[in-house]
Amino acid sequence: MIQKLLTMVFILFATLLNAQNTDEIMAEARLLYNSEKASWNGTDILIEHYPDRMERTGGYFSYTSDEGRHICVFYDKQEEPKIHTSFSFDDSFLAETVKVDTITRVMTSLEKDLYEIRVEAIKLTFSNDPMFKHYEDMNYNYIPLIEGKDKKVYILTGPTQPGVIVFGNDYLITFDKKNKVKKKKSLHNNIIVMDYGNREEKIITGMHSHLKSTGELITVTDVCTLMLYCPYTGWENYYVMSEKYVSIWKCETNELVVMKRKAWDKIMEYQAEKDEDK
After folding, report:
1. Any idea what the Cα angle at residue 69 is, between residues 64 and 74, rounded to 5°?
2. Nearest to 89, CA basis, from 26, 36, 147
3. pLDDT 10s digits, 203-249
4. Which end of the chain has fewer CB atoms < 10 Å from its terminal CB, N or C?
5. What's the number of CA atoms in the CB half-sphere (13 Å) around residue 30?
């Protein structure tokens, strides 16, 4: 019954609430996902097929080209690093579509900027700045983005153990035209760690709540994390609850629907009454 009710809600509210805000969230989250997915796949391929190149690798980053390809590049450890390996993916990220380039080359101007703001972000997070929190069995994932004049690095906290998904402890750093830090912001004030692996009972939904300081809607980093991990969790829907809204993420279709919390509460109240009548 609840699934039928939710389906009705999706139809009624999908085009009515926060259309502009959700479009902006989805557009930015897609950029994050494309970058991080390229980095995931590129790293896997490098480790599996080019292990000898790992020793000469000083780091990596990913970006989307003007042609729409998602490129993961690995650079060496020189003082002025060069790209030694790159992997290019289409939107499917399927292994059979990857293009590999193993010719060492200098960085393009875009790549130099992405490299520099990523390095600056790493330095900042490992300084004595109390904003940035570090946890055992977790690493920071740095995602540099450049859109027009906007330069930024999103930082996600990623688990080192399988079967775990992490929300929160994420940050946004913006940079000026000279690649110097302009602003820094914590996107969530806490961290939520969920174990989705090795369960005897299948879990089809997940949920966390947002305080006012985080915002009323699901965050860009939440959506990116769900796009990356939902295929492995078995979840059908994921919910982010706030005082005024409920953000509903449809895992199978990568769709975001936002409804008012009052409407959600009425549906839950109705469902509770129906359950009592049985």
Report:
1. 65
2. 36
3. 889 999 998 889 999 999 999 999 999 999 989 999 999 999 999 99
4. C
5. 12
Task: Return the H-helix or E-strand segment holding 111.
Answer: helix 109-125
CA angle 118, 122, 126 (to 5 degrees): 170
**What is the DSSP-derived secondary structure letter of residue 96?**
G
Token couple for 226: 């769900």
| Residue among 150, 154, 155, 153 nearest 176 (CA) | 150
Contacts of residue 92, Cβ cutoff 8 Å, sequence gap at least 6? none
Rg of the chain over CA atoms, in angstroms? Answer: 20
According to DSSP, residue 95 is labeled G
Enumerate the β-bridge partners of residue 171.
Answer: 155, 186
- The answer to whether residues 110 and 146 touch, using CB atoms and an 8 Å cutoff, is yes
Q: What is the mean pLDDT of residues 261-271?
A: 84
> What pLDDT does 14 receive?
45
pLDDT, tens digit, 9 for 90 and up, residues 36-85: 999 999 999 999 999 999 999 999 999 999 999 999 999 999 999 999 99
Decide: residue 179, CB within 10 A, 0-12 exposed, 13-18 middle, 19+ buried: middle
DSSP string, 20-64: HHHHHHHHHHHHHHHHHHHHHHHHHHHHHH-GGGTTT--EEEEEE
Domain boundaries, the chain: 2-277
